[in-house]
Amino acid sequence: MMRLIVVSNRVNPPSGEGDESVGGLAMALAAALREYSGLWFGWSGKTTPEFTGQLAIEKVGGVTAATVDLEEADLDEYYNGYANKTLWPLFHYRTDIAAYDRVYGQGYARVNARFADTLAPLIEPDDLVWIHDYHLIPLARELRKRGIKNRIGFFLHVPWPAHQVFINLPGHRQLVEAMFDYDLLGFQTVDYQQAFEEYVLAEADGVQPQPGLLKAFGRTVATGAFPIGIDAEDFAKALKNAKARRMRDLMTACTVFRHLIVGVDRLDYSKGLEERFLGFERFLTANPDMRREVLMLQIAPVSRESVEAYQEIRSRLDSLSGRINGAFADVDWAPIRYVNKNYRRDELAGIYGAARVGLVTPLRDGMNLVAKEFVAAQNPEDPGVLILSRFAGAARQMKEALLVNPNSAEELADALKRALAMDKAERIRRWSALVETVQREDVTAWRDAYVQALAGVKEARPALAS
Q1: Are 41 and 107 in the same domain?
Q2: Catalytic residue among 69, 268, 365, 442
Q3: With contact defined as beta carbons under 8 Å apart, do 78 and 349 qualify?
Q4: Is the residue at 412 inside a domain?
Q5: Could you list the residue range(s) of the whole structural domain that residue 298 is in?
Q6: Which residue in 154, 158, 318, 466 has the most C-beta neighbors within 10 A?
Q7: Which of 77, 81, 87 is nearest to 175 (CA)?
């Protein structure tokens, strides 16, 4: 029987319905695994004085998880270093803050090799191996060196940058060459898929014998766009539970006679939070008659606190939110509530459901599942309006949202004014089209499309000589 082995940097299966998780990846992967026998492999999130490769295996929320601890140096060089100081900013077009340090690259290679050493003995001949995200790009090559001939697929959750951006990376060619040891490379959108293909054709003397196939480095790899979705059915259940209803009632009471504008993002420079605050400030300045009619709630759980760029963005947002509240607040009202904490998924559903406007305006994003959850949480008879960045992968599917350039404070301010003034008929028309897409192109459709494509690869790869 075919098993599915999912591999990601962190293994964090939700323990049950409504489990706390702002990011959508854990929910999506857990939903994928529940339909297939197999396991989820990756880092435990813990460190150990010396790497031993010892596995911890447990079943959590219906998912079998196999985890391994890393050394402190691995965490510093592989995760905080190459993954989050080099690749993350580069893939999000922040070449100005990307750090290129040879030690980071060595740590990245070392951890991928250690993952391969630990994972390879778990893989059975008929297994499909599905590796996720930028942390583990070289993992297929390491598995091939260890004799693994199975079909191995890779899915990139973040954007693939344009050719002229990606070549800023030292060793860019070697990283892409390692990707040709996969059988299928999946991207969130056709744009990202094409950006990768353009790099291969321009920099690696590649050829494209037909759409969705690339030849380079003496090997052939399939490529495709597989936009990730939410677990729409599970989210619909979360909307009906007591915590979701209580949170919706609380937010409705707190914003009585006012319209709630909500944003939910991990605290990250790619999410456009500073630009969002500035756009809201511009809205307040340009529309004095509407000031007391709105309240903006920005939820931004802190992440990667040991990375300097994240410390800096937190400091700037603290200052900016304070400045805006100081300029516009009255004794009984402040325009921004800025909260740095996690909320349960069902609680977020209640918050989304109480909002008149969902503000999802990243500067660059692979997909953005908050946009889809906001739509799924709306009241069909009186839905809110989604304002969405053109630079989020979700914008390709969600064209009925108000699409904006998040770098323009004027455009954000104009979109807010339009959303708040939009009549019910237009809100229902836009929402109906959006929710149909969210329900049709959900996590199940994403999972099935990818797994079927990987299973359909004609021949498994030969192992590489170690």
Answers
A1: yes
A2: 365
A3: no
A4: yes
A5: 232-440
A6: 154
A7: 87
- The answer to the question of residue 461 being in a domain is no
Residue 163 annotated as catalytic: no
**Identity (one letter) of the amino acid at 66?**
A
End-to-end CA separation in angstroms for the chain: 29
Q: Would 194 be classed as within a structural domain?
A: yes
- Domain count within the chain: 2
Evaluated on CA atoms 410, 412, 415, 420, the torsion sign reads negative
Q: Which residues pair with 298 in a beta bridge?
A: 263, 338
Nearest to 141 by CA among 113, 118, 160, 110: 113
What are the strands, taking DSSP E only, across 306-460?
A: 336-339, 357-360, 385-389, 402-404
Residues 143 and 278 reside in one and the same domain = no
pLDDT at res. 234? 81
310 lies in the same domain as 436: yes
Nearest alpha-carbon partner for 62 in 105, 25, 27: 27
Same domain, 165 and 236: no
Please spell the DSSP secondary structure of 41-81, one letter per residue.
Answer: EEEEEEEESS----EEEEEETTEEEEEEEEEHHHIIIIIII
Identity of the amino acid at 81: G
Give pLDDT tens digits for 249-261: 999 998 888 999 9
Q: What is the pLDDT of residues 135-151, one digit of tens each?
A: 999 999 999 999 999 99
Indicate if 157 belongs to the active site: yes
Cα separation, 284 vs 139, in Å, equals 49
Which is catalytic among the residues 135, 157, 183, 442? Answer: 157
For residues 175 and 323, membership in a common domain is answered with no
Give the CA count within 13 Å in the CB-facing half-sphere of 332.
7
pLDDT greater at residue 53 or residue 304: 53
CA 376 vs. chain centroid, Å, equals 18
What residues form DSSP beta bridges with 48? 71
Q: pLDDT band at residue 424, thresholds of 50, 70 and 90?
A: very high
Say how far apart CA 167 and CA 163 lie, in whole Å: 6
Are residues 22 and 168 located together in one domain of the fold?
yes
Same domain for 318 and 280: yes
CATH code: domain of residue 179: 3.40.50.2000
DSSP 8-state code for residue 301 = -
